[in-house]
Amino acid sequence: MGVEASLQQAAARLAELLTGGIAALSDPTGRDLVFEAEVSLRLLERRPAPADVWAVDGGQCVVADARCVQLLVTRAARVRYAAGERVLEDEGELRAHLLGVGEDRASLAALGLAIDAHTSVDANLLRDRWEWDAVVRSIEEAQPGALVLVDGDLVPDWRIPSTFMGELLERSAERNVTVAGVTKHSSLSRGGAPLVGQLELEAAVQFGPRAMWWAPVARTRSDFGAGGLQVVVARLDPDARFAFRVDLPVSADPEEVLGAMSAVSADAAFPGYPYPLSVADQLAACPPWLRQELWLELDELFHRAGVPVEVRERAFTDRHKLMERA
Q1: Residue 316 contacts by C-beta under 8 Å, 6 or more apart in sequence?
Q2: How much is the CA Rg of the chain, to the nearest whole Å?
Q3: How many angstroms separate the CA atoms of 289 and 76, rounded?
Q4: Which CB contacts under 8 angstroms, 24+ apart, belong to 295-299?
Q5: What span, in angstroms and rounded, lies between the C-alpha atoms of 220 and 95?
Q6: Which domains are present in the chain?
Q7: Cβ distance 193 to 257 under 8 Å?
């Protein structure tokens, strides 16, 4: 295939990165973090689960793609556990958006945020906006002492006003509600290698294979309000295969919050990851059958609007799939 030499070179360099010595911490995504001078692993004890636990996750899918213009849908799902019982499953409202050929401006205006009209718009921004809206609603509906879990980190999309997270953290502090972000696959690195994987190996040597542990990693440089954010890595179950990045308000006690999170991270299907977030992830997902249903509904709306079948086919047929099938 003509890639053997370049593949060998890339593999050799990647091997150096993965097995290299300890070096500086970084985040290739460019997030505004100040890293700890040294990462210190600490044992973690499981604590009772909060009486009120919420989880929020977002999903998206492209329904119709004419390349120059796309129609996509987003939604943000919410789950609530009260005293260990699942009492709410909210798939979230499906919101349709048009992107391309000048339609971005209307999608941007629909977000209801003070964002510059020339800001680029994409699926990440659209999904992120309504996911954070679901977080805000969960904070308002939660009982004092509740835990609100968010899929991903607590640093909003760069296009969302910086004051947004400050106001959110201040409101959660007023209501005595803790917000925690859990990242499934973190970009944090040390010496170019994935930091979380390195800490997993080091903790197994230091504490044993079944220990629960955590380690402070960084804090935000920018003040998001309520003191900003702290970033840690934690293994939340003795049977967990993976540890995760967890973002918390600086005002939160990491051992207390992580210990409580571990009590809702003991699901046998995927130990170590909060199961309320697993449920929210399933609800928010936009599987192929949903995309097909939305396309059929869209096709009917095109028919009512008088769009000829041949126009629809020429606009939205995927030539790549036709050629692959041939």
Answers
A1: 64, 65, 66
A2: 22
A3: 18
A4: 295/63, 295/64, 298/63, 298/64, 298/71
A5: 32
A6: 24-59+76-94+144-283 (3.30.2170), 289-325 (no CATH)
A7: no
194 phi/psi in degrees, rounded to 5 = -60, 120
Q: Where are the alpha helices (DSSP H) in the chain?
A: 4-19, 104-109, 123-141, 163-174, 195-207, 254-262, 275-284, 288-304, 309-316, 319-325
Selection from 252, 177, 171 nearest residue 216 by Cα = 252
What is the C-alpha separation between 270 and 251, in angstroms, rounded? Answer: 29
- Which two structure tokens, joined as six digits, stand for 219? 């804090």
Q: What is the pTM of this model?
A: 0.90
Residue 191: which of 79, 24, 15 has the closest Cα?
Answer: 24
Q: Which amino acid is at 281?
A: D
- Read off φ and ψ for residue 53, nearest 5 degrees: -125, 130
| Residue listed under structure tokens 């309520």 | 226
Q: What is the tens place of the pLDDT at every residue in 274-315?
A: 999 999 999 999 999 999 999 999 999 999 999 999 999 998
Count of other CB atoms within 10 angstroms of residue 141 = 16
Instruction: Tell me the C-alpha distance between 136 and 297, whole Å.
Output: 31
Side chain identity at residue 177, one-letter code: V
Confidence class of residue 266 from pLDDT cuts 50, 70 and 90? very high
Specify whether the backbone of 102 is left (phi greater than 0), alpha (psi in -120 to 50) or beta: left
36 burial class (0-12, 13-18, 19+ CB within 10 angstroms)? middle
Annotate 245-287 with DSSP letters as a single string. Answer: EEEEETTS-HHHHHHHHHTT---TTSTTS-HHHHHHHHHH---
| Averaged pLDDT for residues 65-92 | 94
Strand, coil or helix: 83: coil
